[in-house]
């Protein structure tokens, strides 16, 4: 790579760091009021237009910045466009600063990505979401001038199922790996939003605690599941249905499959916790270790599991398995399955 790249590829599932890098590039070029900066939507423009913009002489300046979002993902499906970019990118003038910005991770086999990695005038950076959200939250809190307790950071991570998304992102199946990366990217954004809200809430007066997390994140789907199970245990089907509607409203991309999976996971954890306690297992950290959750979640599981008998939980899991099969074979819609499940459980 040359000392001064003329084009850049920024991609990955850490949109926070990715956006920050792009913002720094914009700021560095804004001394002239943005006269030498152009931005394009890659799905609405052509390789020829982008290359022409990058080659245009800067106005009373030394560099011209051209930012194009989503171009690589778009032209990958168009061989002629991709071939033109590959052929001409290495010949950009020294004053060009062409940034190809992708909002999703590019496959390692992407033709344009592989070609760029061999060009001396290219700068390619992959922004990977953190594997450990708890550590990331503590460092991010410091950037905001705040402190967050380890238990509070673990609570946010658990509520967003971050570890599960990370495991899926490391999987062997390409489709599931991409889905995991997308879910992890969304969870990272949600975690940052939650953290910023919590920072404002404590206002520097104290460390952010897990009680603060519990107080300020009631709409997170996983948190709604805890409350919904409480409602079912108390026979309050109306409240459980209300929480289902709220969760689906907050996540319009999910027709109900993800929420159903969260409910099934909750009852599996409750069954494991109940079994652990019935066998004489300890509380707190012992539950966390036995079930594989944080102490924050373990405490909630211990409380909820006592509201069900082991036989009840076994019957519920069998019912969930039956509904899951019916959903996957198209015999019942996810939302209807959720409604029937709640109605049947609330009625005993």
Question: What does this protein look like?
Answer:
60% of the residues lie in helices and 8% in strands. With 348 residues, it is an alpha/beta fold. It folds into 3 domains: 7-127, P-loop containing nucleotide triphosphate hydrolases (Rossmann fold, 3-Layer(aba) Sandwich); 133-216, no CATH class; 221-346, Zinc Finger, Delta Prime, domain 3 (Up-down Bundle). The chain has a 5-stranded parallel sheet with strand order 2-3-4-1-5, with helices on both faces. Helix 7 runs parallel beside helix 10 (210-216), helix 12 packs antiparallel against helix 17 (334-346) and helix 16 (310-328) runs antiparallel to helix 17. The chain is elongated and about 75 Å long. The mean pLDDT is 85.
Helicity range of the residues? Answer: 55-70%
Strand content: 5-15%
Question: What's the CATH architecture name of the largest domain?
Answer: Up-down Bundle
What separation lies between the terminal Cα atoms? 67 Å
* Biggest sheet strand line-up: 2-3-4-1-5
Q: Can you tell me the CATH topology of the largest domain?
A: Zinc Finger, Delta Prime, domain 3
- Would you state the CATH class of the largest domain? Mainly Alpha
Any idea how many domains? 3
Q: What is the element string, with H for helices and E for strands?
A: EHEHEHHEHEHHHHHHHHHHHH
Which structural class do the helices and strands define?
A: alpha/beta
Name the poorly predicted regions: none
- SS summary, helix count: 17
Describe the sheet with the most strands: 5 strands, parallel
Oligomer, anyone? single chain
Mean pLDDT: 85
**How many distinct beta strands?**
5
* Rg computed from alpha carbons, rounded to a whole number of angstroms: 25 Å
Shape, per Cα inertia axes: elongated
